[in-house]
Amino acid sequence: MRNGEVVASRTDPQGVIVACASCGQANRLRFTALNKTIRCGNCRATLPALSAPVEIADTATFDAAARDSALPLLVDFWAPWCGPCRMIAPILEELAAERRDIRVAKLNVDENSRTSAAFGVQGIPLLVFFKDGVERGRVVGAVPRGQIEAAIRQYFG
Known about the structure:
By secondary structure, this protein is α+β, with helices and mostly antiparallel strands. The protein has a domain at about 50-155: Glutaredoxin, CATH 3.40.30. It contains four helices and ten strands. It has a five-stranded mixed β-sheet with strand order 6-8-7-9-10, with helices on both faces. Helix 2 links the parallel strand 7 (about 75-80) and strand 8. The model is unreliable at about 1-5 (pLDDT under 50).
């Protein structure tokens, strides 16, 4: 939790699992409801919107997030050893914190080689834009924030 906003703790094929700031209860924010106000299942406190990129752990979770996300999804295919990936990470974190009309997700290509291969990832960082379960476009390389924002406008409208 940062400044009253939720930082995702983990994901699964059903959604993002976060802890309630009021009572500590784990809550699942379903991908299909990321655009709605969600209340804690235990104490009924309103859970703030996600404010950080969501880490995609496996192929099933990636497929569910891309297919079911209620909001347009920007996926960063990255690796921890990749210098350019580390260069754009702060930009993606800022966008995740500032924008409520999209969700930002990160997929580690070393841990998810099957998904990376399925998407023909040959260079990283690779930003892939999904809307309504369909890939809308890509941006390859460490590009400035303005170029990422232009791609968001182009691919998400």
